[in-house]
Amino acid sequence: MLETSARLLRLLSLLQTPRDWSGADLAERLGVGVRTVRRDVDKLRALGYPVHATPGVSGYRLGAGANLPPLLLDDEEAIAVAIGLRTAATGTVAGIEESSVRALAKLEQVLPRGCGTG
């Protein structure tokens, strides 16, 4: 089950990039067959992720939806987001101070040790 869950998260991460993916490309990246990719896409859809499919070369992409998918950031990206939120929380961007503080608190809870932003 863990292997499947990890693969679904990896698939979701790939689909978050702004491009279309063929089933064969996804299968190669995930180390599985095209049928497994189709089953995994169906699982993501059942979880509420709007995965769109176009027959032919274009393939799969993640559409806009009501729920935000998990945001998968590397350490440097997470630090950059935290710095931006800290800046916004100081009032430099009017009207989003409170939401910036809330988002920053959530992000700082999951930042790796030693990746503090201030």
Automatic annotation (TrEMBL):
UniProt-listed Gene3D superfamilies: Winged helix-like DNA-binding domain superfamily/Winged helix DNA-binding domain
GO molecular function, one term: DNA-binding transcription factor activity
Record keyword Transcription regulation present: yes
Keyword line: Transcription, Transcription regulation
Tagged with keyword Transcription regulation: yes
Matches recorded under PROSITE patterns: HTH_DEOR_2
One Pfam short name: HTH_11
Domain HTH deoR-type positions: 4-59
InterPro entries documented for this protein: CBASS_pafABC_assoc_protein, DeoR_HTH, HTH_11, WH-like_DNA-bd_sf, WH_DNA-bd_sf
Parts forming coiled coils: none
Protein name: HTH deoR-type domain-containing protein
